[in-house]
């Protein structure tokens, strides 16, 4: 186990022991993700190209005394939550982290899985609000922990679907499947091209000579702020107007013929072109063609900025600085749902130190701090430790 995972494991097991007076029965780890390209395409039945990363959430769990679930959150001053398995829990609006535990537990029960009471401790080392899917990783970890505790084995794609349902039905974000699926199915050394309609996964190996850099803009984001769900509704309206079940089935000629208003047209244009860019990027990655990959990433960012309108000025600045520092071999774009969060950059590993130095001298967060920079290799998906 690497030192980062070991430190997290030590923290989650110590928190568990301190609160419950004994060691957990098992610990589950579920990673965050970075999406290389394919943004807001997942809920349009389209394509995405994410990879799991090293930072993760861990859940330590043991069987509880009765039909209650008790949780302690190491990252929130050891805040606690308790709810019964007998009555459907309500949202815990004072502690948003608790909703992912409540929502996932309920979603598993609704999917027909009989769960025993449980004691849990949770801890993570994913930056919050960075667009690296800390909440999806939490739901996946909680789900796997409940299932393992009860000796229930289900396919990790099914686990991801239940976690997505928890986020949509309980938390209220009408998200796609990408974040939960990559946290559940990630593969070390690989990005995965995901067909979000069939859930087919295609390996996209990443050479050791290629580095992924993630730079946090310093502007934190949340999905439950209306913008995300509004974008989804606009996409669905565009698909309905063109007579297709999802924008995956539309093309630019159909869009031109549909004569939609300017905003709806722009939203649909982003999704239609982003799907093609994602397929092209997977091909470029397979060939080690970082020049084409960089061009596609730049087009993706521009499309998110101008057509989907989900970037913010600080992010546009950060991406421009990254693109200039990287040059033609590789590229950069915003990653994740938008309105803040992180940029992802791809470059030859040999360029990392130089690019990092340039970002540190040229970009400051809106608060004036140096940005958080992470250099990651694709890691594995959820596991029982
Ligand atoms: C968020 C959502 F949770 C994903 O489903 C996806 O839509 C992403 O934003 C944008 O690509 O992370």
From TrEMBL:
Keywords: ATP-binding, Carbohydrate metabolism, Cytoplasm, Galactose metabolism, Kinase, Magnesium, Metal-binding, Nucleotide-binding, Transferase. The keyword Protein transport does not apply. One of its GO terms (cellular component) is cytosol. Residues 284-364 form the GHMP kinase C-terminal domain. PROSITE patterns: GALACTOKINASE, GHMP_KINASES_ATP. Its EC number is 2.7.1.6. Residues 100-186 form the GHMP kinase N-terminal domain. It comes from the Bacteria. Pfam families: GalKase_gal_bdg, GHMP_kinases_C, GHMP_kinases_N. GO terms for molecular function: ATP binding; galactokinase activity; metal ion binding. Residues 15-62 form the Galactokinase N-terminal domain. GO terms for biological process: galactose metabolic process. NCBIfam families: gal_kin (TIGR00131). Belongs to the GHMP kinase family. GalK subfamily. This is Galactokinase. The lineage of its organism: Bacteria, Pseudomonadati, Pseudomonadota, Alphaproteobacteria, Sphingomonadales. The gene is galK.
């Amino acid at each position: 186990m690497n030192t980062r995972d070991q430190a997290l494991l030590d923290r989650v097991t110590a928190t568990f022991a301190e609160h419950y007076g004994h060691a957990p029965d098992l610990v589950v780890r579920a990673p965050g993700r970075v999406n290389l390209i394919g943004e807001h395409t997942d809920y349009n039945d389209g394509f995405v190209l994410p990879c799991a990363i090293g930072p993760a959430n861990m859940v330590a769990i043991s069987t509880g005394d009765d039909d209650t679930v008790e949780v302690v959150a190491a990252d929130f001053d050891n805040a606690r939550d308790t709810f019964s398995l007998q009555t459907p829990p309500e949202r815990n609006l004072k502690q948003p982290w608790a909703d992912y535990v409540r929502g996932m537990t309920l979603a598993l029960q609704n999917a027909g899985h009989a769960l025993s009471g449980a004691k849990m401790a949770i801890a993570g080392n994913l930056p919050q609000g960075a667009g690296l899917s800390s909440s999806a990783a939490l739901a996946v970890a909680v789900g796997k922990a409940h299932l393992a505790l009860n000796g229930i084995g289900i396919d990790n794609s099914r686990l991801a679907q239940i976690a997505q349902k928890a986020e949509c039905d309980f938390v209220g974000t009408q998200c796609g499947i990408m974040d939960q699926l990559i946290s559940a199915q990630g593969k070390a050394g690989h990005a995965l091209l995901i067909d979000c309609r069939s859930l087919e996964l295609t390996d996209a190996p990443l050479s050791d000579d290629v580095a992924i850099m993630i730079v946090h803009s310093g502007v934190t984001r949340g999905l439950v702020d209306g913008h995300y769900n509004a974008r989804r509704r606009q996409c669905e309206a565009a698909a309905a107007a063109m007579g297709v079940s999802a924008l995956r089935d539309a093309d630019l000629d159909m869009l031109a013929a549909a004569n939609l208003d300017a905003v709806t047209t722009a939203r649909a244009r982003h999704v239609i072109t982003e799907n093609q860019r994602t397929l092209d990027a997977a091909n470029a990655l397979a060939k080690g063609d970082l020049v084409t990959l960089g061009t596609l990433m730049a087009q993706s960012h521009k499309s998110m900025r101008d057509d989907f309108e989900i970037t913010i000025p600080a992010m546009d600045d950060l991406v421009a600085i990254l693109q200039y520092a990287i040059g033609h071999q590789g590229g950069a774009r915003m990653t994740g749902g938008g309105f803040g969060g992180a940029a992802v950059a791809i470059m030859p590993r040999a360029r990392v130190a130089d690019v990092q130095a340039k970002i540190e001298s040229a970009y400051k967060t809106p608060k004036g701090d140096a940005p958080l920079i992470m250099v990651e290799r694709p890691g594995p998906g959820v596991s029982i430790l």
